[in-house]
């Protein structure tokens, strides 16, 4: 399920983009997007990482406001009704969304803004921001992805099955994106990501 509220016309958005740059990073659950982002931000503090909002519970070690903004379902739905999201989607039974105002302000102020979001949200951002640079992170194989998801030991068997079904659909969409990077060797994938952002 995906619902998006109109925020502003694509023409208006495009006028903003020469001042900054919007990077959309996506890929299936368990592919290593979060780890790549953490190291990228350590190496490049000048990047602005847009923290998403979610209704899912924090995982061990996750910090509110740093990894995600964790809110209740009712609070999220209230923000949707107020038009506060650039995009939002329901994934694996939880809502995820990108706060609108902060992202637009950062892009307009000349920052390189990185969004790490789910496929449906990434598609909507690409429709709203045609100049956004979109990057899809792929696993070396589906078997390796399943191994990584199971290795987290954080989800029930039912949740794992949902994630794997979703991952198959997402991987088929990789060609929609400007660049595909395979996260097999971590340093190689990180270097390829840096080359896309700064090359």
Q: Quick check: average pLDDT? A: 87
Order of helices and strands: HEHEEEHEEHEHEHHEH
The low-pLDDT segments are 1-18
- Enumerate the strands of the largest sheet in spatial order, edge to edge or round the barrel: 2-7-1-8-9
What is the level-2 CATH architecture name? Answer: 3-Layer(aba) Sandwich
Shape: globular
Tally of DSSP helical segments: 8
CATH topology: Rossmann fold
Instruction: Indicate how many domains the architecture comprises.
Output: 1
- Rg, Å, rounded: 16 Å
Binding site for ATP: 27-34
Function: Essential for recycling GMP and indirectly, cGMP.
GO molecular function: ATP binding; GMP kinase activity
GO cellular component, one term: cytosol
Q: Would you kindly provide a written description of the structure presented here, covering whatever features stand out?
A:
It catalyses: GMP + ATP = GDP + ADP. It holds the Pfam family Guanylate_kin. Essential for recycling GMP and indirectly, cGMP. Residues 20-198 form the Guanylate kinase-like domain. With 199 residues, the protein is α/β, with parallel strands linked by helices. It is built from 8 helices and 9 strands. A hairpin with a 2-residue loop joins strand 5 and strand 6.
Compile the SSE list and pairings:
Elements: H1 10-16, E1 21-26, H2 33-43, E2 48-50, E3 53-54, E4 69-70, H3 73-81, E5 85-91, E6 94-99, H4 100-108, E7 112-116, H5 119-128, E8 133-138, H6 142-151, H7 157-172, E9 179-182, H8 186-198
Helix pairs in contact: 6-7
């Amino acid at each position: 399920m995906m619902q998006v509220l109109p925020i502003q016309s694509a023409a208006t958005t495009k006028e903003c983009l020469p001042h900054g740059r919007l990077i959309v990073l996506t890929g299936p659950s368990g592919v290593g997007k979060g780890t790549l982002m953490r190291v990228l931000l350590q190496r490049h503090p000048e990047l602005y990482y847009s923290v998403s909002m979610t209704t899912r519970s924090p995982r061990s070690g996750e910090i509110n406001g740093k990894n995600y903004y964790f809110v209740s379902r009712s609070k999220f739905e209230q923000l949707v009704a107020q038009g506060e999201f650039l995009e939002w989607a329901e994934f694996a039974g939880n809502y995820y969304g990108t706060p609108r105002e902060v992202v637009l302000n950062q892009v307009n102020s000349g920052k390189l803004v990185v969004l790490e979001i789910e496929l449906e949200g990434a598609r909507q951002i690409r429709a709203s921001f045609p100049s956004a640079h979109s990057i899809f992170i792929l696993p070396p194989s589906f078997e390796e992805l399943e191994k990584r998801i199971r290795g987290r030991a954080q989800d029930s068997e039912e949740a794992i099955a949902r994630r794997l079904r979703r991952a198959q659909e997402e991987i088929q969409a990789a060609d929609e994106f400007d660049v595909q990077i395979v996260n097999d060797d971590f340093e190689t994938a990180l270097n390829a990501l840096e080359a896309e952002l700064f090359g």
